[in-house]
Amino acid sequence: MRRGIGVGAIKKEKLHQEKYRGKGNQIQENQLEQMSKQMEVFKTNLEDFATKHKNEIRKNPEFRKQFQEMCSSIGVDPLSSGKGFWSILGIGDFYYELAVQIVEVCLATTAKNGGLISLDELRTKLIKARGQSKSHQEISKDDLIRAAKKLRIFGSGFNVIPMGKDRYMVQSVPGELSMDHSIILQQAEKNTAHVSISYICKELNWENERCQKALEHMVDQGLAWIDSQDPQEIQYYFPSLYTACINSNA
Amino acid sequence: MPEVEIDWPWQYNFPPFYTLQQHPETRSKQVAAWKSLILNYCEKTKNYTIDVRDTNQCPLFNNSTINRKLEPDIIISILGELQRTGNAAPVDKAKNRWEIYWHTLEEWATIVYDFINERGMQNTVVTLYELTQGEDSIDTTFYGMNQDVLIKVLRVLEGDRKCELILEDDIQGAKFF
């Protein structure tokens, strides 16, 4: 077979390439168009679905979570959509209401826990506060996290702190908590609500100074209490993790 | 001390409750909790006096379960806070002995005077013993009241011209108007 050489061959080659590119673009455009169509269909279906299952979304927390996930996969946030189609669902309202109740529970318990509360305690107190009339509407931890995260728009006053393995704490007072602080909280949680400098240093292999700095910060934030009557060394206690404090209604 | 069930608050078994907290907000929560615990405890146990030197024996300030106790100087400063609201007063200069008023003297005065009125006991002389140990007052909240405290309460009423104290050798009581 004769190889293409010379100017003619080069031109021909170029022509081919252009054709390919044109075809490629066309295919891409087709695909995009199809995708957009599919998305449009999906969105319509999602809206249909949402309207049809409005009550289930409101009542069933598991259902609600999965619905939220579907929505976020196509970039719809029913929480932030106060207007238009999504508002008729009242899903946004549901979360706004939750957010307000979260603030109420946090404020009511700040006196004893210094503004730090475990998500579990928050949930128990909030469900109790909502009362029997709304008992048909079950509140999941996922709902609370979503609602609490919305509160961030008010600034650094509200924070959801991951504690590992489906455990969270909600911080309701301004003041940054770093990674070090949440790690200390995790340590305190598994050690009946208290830690000491040497305990942390040993468990986490930290420098003495790093540990001291982090603990002092938490005392300054009103999150930790000092116990100087331990025979070994100063202990730092966290009322927000202390079982009797969590269970008290005061 | 009579045996009564104390409904201890959660702080009672919280070890740092017995160390005075340095952080201002935390400390004010701590002091407030101590103030109400002291008043509740004294009311339940009908303890009208606290001697700061004896607090080692008192479960209120010495929690043997968790091996923590509140030091006398901290106790004195908390009692000082209670004094500001009329809920405590030192008896001696060294501030070792204190009277505790879970009702302020003025509140007690009203309670006693209402009792006298209900019984129609005005214009009669009632002895201190009758008031706090008598059959008629068994159901009152001031039954068994410390006599020194009672006299202070009656002095309040005297100041309002609602009674006249009689503190003679042979009779100790008050005539109510």
From TrEMBL, chain A:
GO BP annotation list: protein transport to vacuole involved in ubiquitin-dependent protein catabolic process via the multivesicular body sorting pathway
Keyword match Lipid metabolism: no
Coiled-coil region(s): 25-52
Pfam families, A to Z: EAP30 (PF04157)
Localisation per UniProt entry: Cytoplasm; Endosome membrane
InterPro entries membership: ESCRT-2_cplx_Snf8 (IPR016689), Snf8/Vps36 (IPR040608), WH-like_DNA-bd_sf (IPR036388), WH_DNA-bd_sf (IPR036390)
A single Gene Ontology CC term: ESCRT II complex
Coiled coil in keyword set: yes
Membrane topology: Peripheral membrane protein
Keywords: Coiled coil, Cytoplasm, Endosome, Membrane, Protein transport, Transport
Similarity-based family: Belongs to the SNF8 family.
Purpose: Component of the endosomal sorting complex required for transport II (ESCRT-II), which is required for multivesicular body (MVB) formation and sorting of endosomal cargo proteins into MVBs.
Protein's recorded name: Vacuolar-sorting protein SNF8
From TrEMBL, chain B:
The entry's keywords: Cytoplasm, Protein transport, Transport
InterPro entries associated with the record: ESCRT-II_cplx_Vps25-sub, ESCRT-II_cplx_Vps25-sub_N, WH-like_DNA-bd_sf, WH_DNA-bd_sf
Alphabetized Gene3D superfamilies for the sequence: Winged helix' DNA-binding domain. Chain C. Domain 1, Winged helix-like DNA-binding domain superfamily/Winged helix DNA-binding domain
Domain of life, per lineage: Eukaryota
Subcellular location as annotated: Cytoplasm
Keyword DNA damage set for record: no
Single GO biological process annotation from the record: macroautophagy
Nucleotidyltransferase found in the keyword field: no
GO CC list: ESCRT II complex
A GO molecular-function descriptor: structural molecule activity
Entry-linked Pfam families: ESCRT-II
Protein family according to the UniProt entry: Belongs to the VPS25 family.
Name of protein: Vacuolar protein-sorting-associated protein 25
The organism's taxonomic lineage, starting at the top: Eukaryota, Metazoa, Ecdysozoa, Arthropoda, Hexapoda
